């Protein structure tokens, strides 16, 4: 907008400079913007600086005079030098409080508006790239910078389109700088120069990656969702989706196409995932990535990122990475699981190494354990690996210090032995003739999955015997179910709810056991009366004959009150012990 009355010294300087016939000196406006402590006065000085810069810097719009080559070169040089001064003003604002950080970001858009007035049909991409690089590569940084940038990018379609394109190029340059890839001097971009200058000034590549991660994860997703939509549907919706433009006179281009904006969004994310991010950024990113799955046309490209995150060595990070990898296998429409590294086998190898007593000491383990069981329940699990997983679950249950996790481990091992009874029954039901005395278990918890699946046929689930003597009643009762043979009687296969034992601590386990309702058992009779007969002759040896001749009744009731049918019912009730 034009300078308003009463804006003070900045408005007066701007009015005077706009009226000059020759190229003016803008040092006073720049000095006023640096030294002022009031945000309003700094904004007025910086905005006035931009207006004067764009007014005198474009000769084809200046006072209607004809363009002269010497005049054009002179004005271009003058514009470049003063634009450098404006960039220094922005960097000085970033050294102040967060309020001035927000002002610096908004001045970037003001610069685009002023530049577009002189060239209304062309988007000032070079100016935006230079100013964004100054913000991202400055010596100081605050979350307000990324929050304000993400807000403005999400609000205007033209700014979003070109900003995402510039960010993707910056991410490529950052990857080149981090890996120290040799680049020919003729191929060095402006973004790479800014990144190298920031590193020289003390900003490390890891800090720059954290800044880009902070910004990319705050970027709003496009209005058009690509989930379960064909290319034809996307093209039809693209004609209908129109957003708000920051530069209204801008020439119609690909920035108005919703599909093109979605592609820029995807490209920016894919370039970002190729970086070797710091561990803290990886953890935040693993929690954020599921939100962008619907906007990626090929979610399978995330597999390499999940594999790299798993190999970082941190247990919590590995659990989150494997959860995302399982989502790709089951929900990512991959078709063939082998698209992800070596396929499902590679996934289960990594899953096998994660199951250890240390996992149950993590604070947020419920989500991983739920996905762990879903992975074992999936049809992708090779049957040859089922026995090894059951053995590992039983060993961890017998050795873990977290008592509350033992019921869940026991339930998983029991489910595996019943579901894959053909490959697990040799570890539970062995004939006496096949029993061999061994001094140590050939299976160890340090083995990899392939090695463990080969030796699991030489071992047994002897850990179940220990669990049957566990002090926790629910563990001992559940361990007794291993003795059943589900392959002969499918009705004995139990449908356990494993979620009941997730996120369980010792206090919850104790309260649950105390408050459990026991099945009511009939009160035993105090005495039995026998009808008049000769016991030596009439009492047979079979239990059925004895039950038919005994009548259960309390001592205080009259004789003859009981019947043989009542006695049979009592004996059956007396034998029912709740599990």
Structure commentary:
56% of the residues lie in helices and 1% in strands. By secondary structure, it is mostly helical. The chain has a two-stranded antiparallel ribbon with strand order 1-2. Helix 15 (315-331) packs antiparallel against helix 16. The longest helix has 25 residues, at 69-93. It is elongated. The protein starts with 8 loop residues before the first helix and ends with a helix. The relative contact order is 0.04.
Core attributes:
579 residues, mainly alpha, two-stranded antiparallel ribbon, 27 helices
The parts where pLDDT drops under 50 for at least 5 residues are 60-64, 225-229, 237-242, 335-341, 532-579
N- and C-termini, Cα separation? 80 Å
Please give the radius of gyration in angstroms: 38 Å
Strand order, biggest sheet?
1-2
Question: How is this structure best summarized?
Answer:
The chain is elongated and about 120 Å long.
